[in-house]
Write a structure and sequence with these properties.
The complex is a heterodimer of chains A (438) and B (219).
Chain A lengths: L10 H9 L2 H15 L2 H9 L11 H5 L8 H14 L6 H13 L17 H14 L5 H13 L7 H16 L16 E4 L3 H5 L1 H13 L4 E2 L12 H4 L2 H17 L4 E4 L4 H13 L9 E3 H10 L9 E7 L3 H4 L5 H11 E5 L25 H6 L2 H10 L3 E3 L3 H13 L5 E3 L1 H8 L6
Parallel strand pairs in A: 1-2, 1-3, 3-4, 5-6, 5-7, 7-8
Helix pairs in contact in A: 1-6, 2-7, 5-6, 5-7, 6-7, 9-11, 11-21, 13-14, 15-17
Chain B lengths: L1 H8 L1 H28 L2 H5 L2 H12 L5 H5 L1 H20 L1 H11 L8 H24 L1 H6 L2 H21 L5 H21 L4 H19 L6
Helix pairs in contact in B: 1-2, 1-11, 2-11, 4-12, 6-8, 8-10, 10-11
The chains are: A alpha/beta (438), B mainly alpha (219).
Chain lengths: 438, 219
């Protein structure tokens, strides 16, 4: 049995509820459903035969004792079907509820697209609902704050320009204690690689920049980081339905790489940022594929290990299991490379089941964890299946090559007492790599 | 009664076929133009290779993870859809009608087999009804329109079965049979039965997106 949830109060939703008019709702729904959406929405809505075969795909549905309101189609029924049926004539309370459903009960992980016989993309429908809620101003407070930060600073975490440079130089100095000639080259035009990270790294996970700088220096990579806005590849505007800001943020990122004349962008171990630069943001800007090749960290580690550039002292001893983040596995096809890297680094690898494309979501991604503390309990309680999946492996360490997954899994690990240590690949690599001068 | 039969099997049949074919073409046309106007990127993603790969997996029984998880549904839905399409096209009585009216003819099913196929379709409808009434996830999604659609689909087969076995008032059953068949044809483009037209495209799109962009399986 799933545990009961407490009532949730989100300040922004309450504030919006007080001022939202039916007129504005109707305008927003018409704008999105009639002007912005096209064939996909029409085909998805007219094709769904209400068969319910998508249900078992959803970790929320499974974790909430198969309560049908949480099935993928159940969430569509509670949101967009009603909006269409009533031709936009829905109440502010309905929009508030729709915002909660679309922003905190669906991670847009697209697992259900693999279970629907017609391939209906419920994640797309839920993001369409978020877009409508965004136009109504009905977005949960914490994630709205990050979208504001993107709009103002071009990064997710209100990191100021000087703080960014200061953080990089601080990590460089720290790392020089270990490797005296280590550099984090800033704005070096014509480098092969621009390395980009997500806002939370300089804010509170600076050691990940340290690890990566160490790896780049050890393998003698020709790399640089931008000192200007555009360094952040993350994108919460994509998840609030603020497509305009998403486009601006992505353009800044690609423009920065173009200005530095790099051949490719290597990005840290993040899932949603990959979706943003590889799938959604680029397409909003009318690029079918990213204008400058994007290499996810998993792919980069694979390249370093495969070519033998990255040398290891020894293999990692503890037993590990691997989480497949939706955005890079189902979204980027890195399942096998991720396994290659894991096996190259670790002695004892235990698969969790289901795995690869069929892996269960962390329930943090898709902007859900970014909706913040008000929704934390709900988020953890509606992903019991993930805890069961982790416990069944009996592994000591859980590798999670995605930031949102990482943070969400920490909460699950803590609540359900899974007893695993959660690590990024870079942490394991840093621990076992041959360090020059050692 | 005889005049009524002539009406439903004459002018009404023409109307039904025209609406069915015209409606399907219209639906495809609007889908295509809408894509061109609003989401032209879809054309750049669509891939013959990955579209067919996806359709291939979903057209083979137990070719996907979800089909393996729902074996009863898989068997029923495949049997149902195959019989639903084959029976009316290859039924001897229908082939004779085509032959009499337009002098075109093709192979037909042995009558006993057609009889079994008809029962499979009716049985399939019963199973879908049972599922709608008992499975909480399906029940929650079900609206009155789902029951109407199920009736529309089952009716031509139930009446066809009764007519073949000459149960009840043959003439009345025949009229109902022809009428219900026409209702179903007309309903296909304008109800969720349009999954018949749309599903190859939705499937091919997600297959192309998963195969070509995401480099992942979608089954």
């Amino acid at each position: 049995m799933s545990e009961p949830e407490k009532a949730i109060i989100d300040d922004n939703l309450e504030r919006c509820l007080a001022g939202l008019t039916k007129d504005r709702i109707k305008k927003a729904i018409d704008q999105v459903l009639k002007k912005e959406s096209g064939a996909r929405l029409k085909a998805y809505v007219e094709t769904c035969v209400h068969c319910g075969l998508c249900s078992d795909a959803c970790h929320v549905y499974l974790s909430k004792d198969k309560n049908p309101i949480y099935s993928p189609a159940g969430k569509v029924k509670r949101t967009i079907w009603e909006m269409i049926r009533k031709n936009g004539d829905v109440s502010p309370e309905f929009i508030k509820e729709a915002s909660i459903i679309a922003s905190t009960e669906c991670n847009a992980c697209k697992r259900c697209a693999m279970y629907c016989p017609f391939g209906i993309d419920v994640a797309y429908l839920m993001l369409t609902v978020r877009r409508i809620c965004h136009l109504c101003g009905m977005t949960p407070m914490y994630i709205q704050d990050t979208a504001h930060s993107h709009a103002v600073t071009m990064n997710q975490m209100w990191v100021k320009d000087d703080e960014w440079i200061d953080t990089l130089q601080w990590q460089e100095e720290e790392a020089q204690d270990e490797m005296s000639n280590l550099r984090i080259p800033l704005d070096r035009e014509g480098s092969e690689i621009m390395y980009s990270v997500i806002g939370p790294e300089p804010k509170f996970q600076a050691h990940l920049i340290y690890n990566m700088a160490f790896i780049f220096n050890a393998v003698g990579a020709d790399w640089t980081m931008p000192s200007t806005p555009g360094w952040d590849n993350s994108d919460m505007a994509m998840y609030t339905g603020d497509n305009e800001i998403m486009g601006r943020v992505k353009r800044e990122h690609f423009d920065t790489a173009a200005r530095l004349k790099v051949k490719r962008i290597v990005m840290g171990e993040c899932g949603h940022a990959f979706r943003s630069v590889y799938d959604m943001g680029n397409r909003w800007l009318n690029w079918r594929m990213p204008p400058i090749p994007i290499v996810h960290a998993i792919d980069y580690y694979y390249e370093l290990l495969k070519t033998g550039k990255l040398k290891l002292k020894e293999k990692y001893k503890k037993s590990v299991t691997l989480h497949d983040p939706c955005n890079v596995i189902r979204g980027g096809g890195l399942a096998e490379k991720s396994r290659y890297v894991t096996k190259a680094l670790c002695e004892n690898f235990i698969e969790m089941t289901p795995n690869r494309e069929h892996n269960f979501c962390c329930n943090a991604g898709g902007g859900v964890i970014n909706c913040g503390p008000p929704f934390k309990d709900k988020r953890v309680l509606s992903n019991r299946v993930k805890a069961d999946q982790i416990k069944a492996t009996g592994a000591e360490v859980l590798i999670s090559p995605c930031h949102n997954c990482h943070s969400g899994l920490e909460d699950i690990n803590h609540h359900y007492k899974c007893g695993v240590e959660i690590k990024f690949f870079s942490e394991i690599i840093y621990e076992i790599m041959e360090k020059p001068g050692e | 009664m005889h005049t009524l039969y002539n009406f439903v099997s004459g002018p009404l049949a023409w109307i039904a076929f025209l609406v069915f074919i015209g409606g399907c073409l219209y639906k495809l046309y609007t889908l295509f133009t809408l894509t061109q106007q609003k989401e032209s990127f879809i054309f750049s993603i669509m891939s013959v290779k990955y579209g067919l790969r996806s359709i291939g997996h979903w057209i083979v029984p137990f070719g996907t993870v979800n089909m393996k998880k729902n074996p009863v549904m898989t068997v029923v839905t495949f049997a149902f859809h195959l019989c639903l399409i084959f029976t009316p096209i290859f039924l001897l009585a229908h082939v004779i009608l085509w032959d009499e009216s337009f002098s075109i003819s093709w192979w037909s099913l042995p009558e006993s087999v057609a009889d079994i196929f008809t029962l499979v379709v009716i049985g399939g409808c019963c199973y879908f009804l049972y599922r709608r009434l008992t499975d909480p996830a399906v029940k929650y999604l079900t609206t009155i329109s789902d029951y109407i659609l199920l009736t529309i689909v089952a009716a031509p087969f139930i009446t066809g079965f009764l007519a073949y076995h000459q149960l009840f008032n043959y003439q009345l059953i025949m009229i109902l049979h022809v009428l219900s068949g026409e209702i179903m044809l007309i309903a296909i483009p304008f109800t969720r039965l349009s999954h018949m037209i749309y599903s190859p495209f939705t499937r091919a799109y997600i297959g192309s997106e998963f195969g070509g962009i995401r480099h992942a399986r979608d089954w």
